[in-house]
Amino acid sequence: MLRREQRAGFPLATKVRALDPERQLRLAQAIGDYRRSLQAVVAEIQERGTPLSDIEADMLIGLADARLELIESELLVDGHRRLRRRGTLALRRRISRLLGLLRPRIGNLRHYDPRPLRVPTSYLREFPPPGVPTIALVTPSFQQANFVERTIYSVANQNYPALEYVVWDGGSTDGSLDVIKRNESALTAWFCEPDDGQADAINRAFAHTSGEVMAYLNSDDLLLPGALAFVGRFFAEHPDVDVVYGDRVLIDENDGDIGWWVLPDHDDEVLRFADYVPQETLFWRRRIWEAAGGVVDPSFRYALDWDLLLRFQAANARIVHLPRFLGAFRVHEAQKTTADDVTGQAESDRLRSRVHHRRVRLEEVLVRQRPYMGRHVRAHLRRRFAERLCREWHYVETLPRPALGAAVVAPAHSLSDADTALGRAPEQPDDAQSLRSAP
């Protein structure tokens, strides 16, 4: 085939492969029809009693038909081969997507390309009932000028009527202090003093609170709309529950949604081997805090929240997972270094040894958490299905909108005293904030 192509001086393979395979097959059919019509013309000439000489037959059929047959054959062979390959690749992609749906998502920090951060509009209709517990929320911060205002804004827009919110900055020099001062009306108190790390900052901030429910939110993470109202209502209706946590949205440095952690029901046994509790969604009662020692252990840099959960567990806390997105965990370059990974592994091993009184190998951890991961996959698929059924969405604004004058617009449904102090004007959700999808 190649020698005939070269002899004809025709770069056939290159031109054939430049076509789409469906077009190749259509062209092959057209060439075949043309060849058959040419043969019919020759037969008609001969039927009229005018025999063709060898030269005439070669001119009409031999040379033209040979070249056309070559082209037709190349088009057919290559077209069918490429279509088979395309079908195989499509099948592989379908299988890969199916396997991806069955693959655990928790533990991974990026699931897909960034997309706008949004929540169901029902989150905006979450109002705290009368008599909800006071929530003491603290934010430890250091050199987070790029993100701390978004964190404060996500808390101020909760419109929770019984909130103590304290920010503790460890002496930042990157402009964080200016950001905190600009938003100080949304805070119960703020401090800018040197500390001995994140745990020490959290402990110092909590010393200035008295709320019945407690939580801490890092200065690069967010609370999602309605989270405090949902948590406050749950604690008010379930006085026997000591600790709650929810599901997590992963966001990038530009607030884009890059993944979900949808968790199954809480499992005390799994918590003894691994920590998959999203810290930014964790809330607890002060009574269990005091029973567990009343402090975040400053000897931990990476696993301080897991240590706290294990001490809650040792104090017989009742821990419940809430099937709702409560917070957003930010993934960015400055978040974690290789040294932190090494430290985190060492601290995790230390906690497992403390709980089990022996060294726990990674293989055992993987075996113990396998059923939990299976439940997680099912929970994730159910949430994805529910997402498709949801017809109303709210785009989450993470900073005040620029506006004329001093007023800025908050994306939430109502305003708290903190919002008024910040100069925010009330506004109902509009098309820029809420999305109604097609049925």
Uncertain runs: 1-10, 403-439
- Overall geometry: elongated
Largest sheet: 9 strands, mixed
H and E string: HHHHEEHEHEHEEHEEHEHHEHHEEHEE
How far apart the termini lie comes to: 55 Å
Strand content: 15-25%
As a whole number of angstroms, the C-alpha radius of gyration is: 33 Å
According to DSSP, the number of beta strands is 14
Look up the CATH topology of the largest domain: Spore Coat Polysaccharide Biosynthesis Protein SpsA, Chain A
- Name of the level-1 CATH class of the largest domain: Alpha Beta
Task: Determine the structural class based on helices, strands and strand pairing.
Answer: alpha/beta
- Taken together, the total number of domains comes to 2
Q: In the CATH classification, which architecture of the largest domain applies?
A: Alpha-Beta Complex
| H/I helix tally | 14
Mean pLDDT across all amino acids? 82
Going by CATH, the homologous superfamily of the largest domain would be Spore Coat Polysaccharide Biosynthesis Protein SpsA, Chain A
How helical, in percent, are the residues? 40-55%
This entry's quaternary arrangement is: single chain
